[in-house]
Amino acid sequence: MTSPFPILSVLCGKVAPFRAADEPSAIAKTAVQGRVKVYRLGLEGDSQADLSVHGGPDKAIHHYPHDHYDWWREAIGDHPLLADYGAFGENIATDGLTEEDIFIGDRWRMGSALVEVSQGRQPCWKLDHRFDGAKVNAGCVKSRRAGWYYRVIEDGEVGAGDALELIDRPFPDWSVRRVFGLLIAGEHKGDPEGLEALGAVSALAEPWVRRRAKLLGL
Q1: Where is the MOSC domain (predicted)?
Q2: How many domains does the chain have?
Q3: Does residue 201 contact residue 174 with C-beta atoms inside 8 Å?
Q4: What is d(CA 190, CA 4) in angstroms, rounded to the nearest whole number?
Q5: How many CB atoms lie within 10 A of CB 39?
Q6: How far is CA 66 from the centre of its chain?
Q7: Does the residue 103 lie in any domain?
Q8: CB-based contacts of 123: which residues, under 8 Å, 6+ apart?
Q9: Per the domain annotation, does 74 fall within a domain?
Q10: Residue 194 burial (CB < 10 Å; 0-12/13-18/19+)?
Q11: In 3D, which of 137, 215, 149, 148 has the Cα closest to residue 182?
């Protein structure tokens, strides 16, 4: 892996009716033209419908690898959403970075902002509905292709064409893929020592700290 990586698209979305009028969502993101401000709660102009599970400082920005789109075309067919960026509700799209290349606690310069990887994305039923019933939620879990979240360390601005540059990697043993496997995909059953050792990763987002504690029976 070499750094920096060009940002292909920056996307934001507003809350709108989703499956029904009483089930709003902001998963539908569209590309931002020009530059957008980055602050503690994410990108200016971006929204989340259910703040109990989305958004907040630990899940301010969602990054999904555009690298995975070809895999999804093979898995579910050439769905129209896969013709452009934003199919998975992501705010940031790149090529060349996947969950194996990104580590919890990584600090990246994103345009002029500084962001830190906090946790993987935990997929839900909304992906299946968005893709017209295709088993995308389960596919994310089984393939470990779920994306990840950033918290914002320093405010700034970002736009398509800006660089994403690695600044620091304090936890090089803890890729997003590995942690997702332990906490979401059931790999803790065969790696209890890994689940225990994950407690030393101080940059892990609080929801996944709680998830780890639950799996340990704490």
Answers
A1: 30-167
A2: 1
A3: yes
A4: 35
A5: 15
A6: 12
A7: yes
A8: 136, 137, 140, 141, 146
A9: yes
A10: middle
A11: 215
Residue 218 CB partners (closer than 8 Å, separation 6+): none
CB 8 within 8 A of CB 66: yes
Euclidean distance between CA atoms 154 and 28, whole angstroms: 26
**Would 51 be classed as within a structural domain?**
yes
**pTM summary value:** 0.94
Residue 132 domain-assigned (yes or no): yes
pLDDT tens-digit readout, 143-195:
999 999 999 999 999 999 999 999 999 999 999 999 999 999 999 999 999 99
Question: How much helix, strand and coil, in percent to the nearest 5, is found in the chain?
Answer: 30, 25, 45
Which structural domain, as residue segments, surrounds residue 50?
5-172
Could you tell me the CATH number of the domain that includes residue 12?
A: 2.40.33.20
